[in-house]
Amino acid sequence: MKSYFSVILIVLLVFTSCAPEHEMKLTGSVDGLKKGTLILQKIEDTTLVSVDSIQMTGDETFEFSVSVASPQVHYLYLRLKNGDLLDERIPFFAEEGELNITTTLEKFGTEYKVTGSKNQEKLEEYKKLMQRYANKNLEVVSLKLKALAEQNDSVYAVLQKQEESVLRSKYLASVNYALTQKEFEIAPYIIVYETQGLTQKYLDTVYKALPQNIKDSKYGTDLESLLAAQAAN
Questions:
Q1: Residues ≥6 apart with Cβ < 8 Å to 74
Q2: Which of 20, 133, 167, 224 could bridge 67 with an S-S bond, Cβ 3.0-4.6 Å?
Q3: Distance (Å, rounded) from C-alpha 226 to C-alpha 189?
Q4: CA proximity to 23, closest of 56, 63, 61
Q5: How many CB atoms are closer than 10 A to CB 63?
Q6: What domains does the chain contain, in order, with CATH numbers?
Q7: What does the pLDDT profile of the chain (233 residues) look like in tens digits?
Q8: At CA 103, angle to CA 134 and CA 21, rounded to 5?
Q9: Which has the closest alpha carbon to 71: 197, 169, 177, 187?
Q10: 23: which strand partners?
Q11: ∠ CA 225-228-229, rounded to 5°
Q12: 55, 95 in Cβ contact below 8 A?
């Protein structure tokens, strides 16, 4: 009996040791894909590197099991059977746990659904918020071009101020969103990689609001580095 339990214990230890630490189990499907290679990538020291890859040979479903020490944006890339790489990648916020991505071969990288990642949910929410400011800015720019064509300097000057106001509102909305999501790694990510041109005052405000575990995350340390670089200048 002791021998039996010893065998069971050894088997469990073997399976446990094989599973990566901070494991992300990424499953999904690419409708219409028969043959090709799916490549999982991330940015490491400013360089896009491959984490893992899977040969697709008739089955449209896939599964990756990799270690994600700290939540970080990854990319799903596709190389077709003839060796051609698609221009589009699927960006998603990778994190420990079970994630799922569904897409199609025809609209790979443009239409897809990611589930299972809390940071991804927050990122998609943030992008919808930013789209409102992008639409407003597009309207103002269109009116500016019209005023320029009509050589209407007074209207152009007013629209120029409106454009600057939209940009300021966008920055403040980004900072406010990061502060409301300070418990998630998405907060420092937004400030470092989605909002360019913030002053040190706002960077510092967000960083100080982060709990220690988020400060210690990849994007928390990236924000700390950005603050240090600005202070040095």
A1: 40, 41, 42, 51, 68, 91, 92, 93, 94
A2: 20
A3: 11
A4: 63
A5: 10
A6: 21-116 (2.60.40.180), 120-232 (no CATH)
A7: 545 544 444 444 444 445 557 899 999 999 999 899 999 999 998 899 999 999 998 889 999 999 999 999 999 999 988 777 777 899 999 999 999 999 999 999 999 999 999 999 999 999 999 999 999 999 999 999 999 999 999 999 999 999 999 999 999 999 999 999 999 999 999 999 999 888 999 999 999 999 999 999 999 999 999 999 988 88
A8: 95
A9: 187
A10: 67
A11: 85
A12: no
At which residue do the structure tokens 């940015």 appear?
43
At position 44, the amino acid (one-letter code) is E
User: Which token pair is 158?
Assistant: 């007013």
